[in-house]
Amino acid sequence: MDYRRLLGSEGEILALGYLQDKGLKLMAKNYRCRLGELDLVMRNKEQVVFVEVRTKSSAAFGTGLESITLKKRTKLKLVAQQFLAHYGLQGADLRFDIVSVCKPPFGPSVLEHVEGAF
User: Fold this and answer.
1) How many domains, in total, are found in the chain?
2) Which domain holds residue 7?
3) Which of 5, 49, 109, 114 is packed most tightly, with the most Cβ within 10 A?
4) What are the pLDDT tens digits along the chain (118 aa)?
5) Which CATH number goes with the domain that contains 61?
6) pTM of the complete model
């Protein structure tokens, strides 16, 4: 596994633990369809929460939050619609969150969670 994939996987593990500590339940991890991928799909009571996790080793080229473009948000919404249709959850209350993880090679990781980011 290359460094970027390993970094991303570690960020998703940190994000998942953080969200579970907040009381969210995991529905799917790395859900894939022909349209793309969802990093984490969580449930918060009756709400389905689609979580995009962005992990970086530094903020030298911008934060993970800054890397979510309009094109990426549009794609995530399309994949989320596919997920909802696949599991018969059309009409469910939903939201899109972003978890940005800065995981430097030395030092502690910093996690930022934006609920209802878009």
Assistant:
1) 1
2) 3-114
3) 49
4) 687 787 888 999 999 999 999 999 999 999 999 999 999 999 998 899 999 999 988 766 767 778 889 999 999 999 999 999 999 999 999 999 999 998 888 888 889 999 999 8
5) 3.40.1350.10
6) 0.90
